[in-house]
Design brief:
Layout: H1 30-34, E1 38-41, E2 52-55, E3 71-76, E4 86-88, E5 90-95, E6 98-99, E7 117-119, E8 126-128, H2 130-143, E9 148-150, E10 157-160, E11 171-175, E12 178-181, E13 188-193, E14 196-201, E15 203-205, E16 210-212, E17 220-225, E18 230-235
Parallel strand pairs: 7-16, 8-15
Antiparallel strand pairs: 1-2, 1-17, 3-4, 3-18, 4-7, 5-6, 5-11, 9-10, 10-14, 11-12, 13-14, 17-18
């Protein structure tokens, strides 16, 4: 097994990390070298309970009635890109009850292998291209019955007054063959801003590459079935796994 040791680390690896385990599609990643599937279940980002990663899967993974319906979508191969990303076929986004007018091409790989949609356990918040983000941003402003705290900066936040319910529209991601209906805690977070309580959208604008981040993957069983080239997910209480 190939194993690397970093002595002079730069970039994002300059604090107190003890190491990084690569779980991508490259030949040097841990699952690739062990020739096993992998599965994880992220606990609440704001909690203190550890999350679980499994290499090789238990036979009863999806047998418990307490677990939600398992949904599955296929991975997309990017022949023009040698990266280790896991590409998915994202088809659209619904905010509230409205399917946004986003062409599927906004999420798709281009002919030269750029763009597309990936799922990544190492990225925090989900990022969309500026055009897609603007549609999501505007839909939340139109459908959220709360004062907008900041319409022109990110993250998009709404003001919560005493006794105000933090009701916000649903956020749903539509994949090829699967639908991820996100719980509220997977796309909204609350904080104090200059003494004002606000609730904010955990989605950011980025480049042409759409990234489904780990904030949106909280309390989901996420299974990378490498043998069958599929991704499966189901709701879970990850602190009880």
């Amino acid at each position: 097994m190939a194993f690397g040791c970093g002595l002079n680390n730069t970039g994002i690896f300059t604090s107190n990390e003890t190491g990084i385990a690569g779980f991508g599609r490259g030949i040097l990643s841990l699952p690739s070298q062990l020739k096993v599937d992998n599965f994880y279940c992220f606990t609440n980002i704001t909690g203190s309970t550890s999350s679980h990663v499994l290499l090789g899967l238990p036979a009863n993974l999806h047998s418990s009635s307490a677990r939600g319906v398992v949904q599955t979508t296929r991975f997309i191969h990017n022949p023009a890109n040698l990266s280790t990303f896991y590409y998915l076929s994202l088809k659209g986004i619904t905010v509230g009850s409205t399917r946004l007018p986003i062409p599927e091409s906004a999420f798709a790989l281009t002919n030269n292998g750029t763009g597309g949609t990936i799922i990544d356990s190492g990225t925090g918040m989900t990022t969309f291209s500026p055009d897609v983000y603007n549609l999501v941003h505007d839909a939340f402003i139109a459908q959220t019955r709360l004062p907008v705290q900041n319409a022109t900066t990110t993250p998009l936040c709404f003001t919560l007054s005493a006794g105000t319910k933090s009701d916000v529209p649903k956020l749903i991601l539509h994949f090829d063959g699967a639908t991820l209906d996100l719980p509220r805690d997977n796309y909204m977070f609350e904080l104090q801003d200059a003494g004002v309580r606000v609730t904010c959208l955990a989605v950011n604008p980025g480049g042409n590459l759409t990234i489904i981040g780990n904030y949106q993957q909280q309390n989901l069983h996420v299974l990378y079935d490498l043998a069958n080239n599929m991704l499966s997910f189901a709701p879970a209480q990850c602190d009880q796994v």
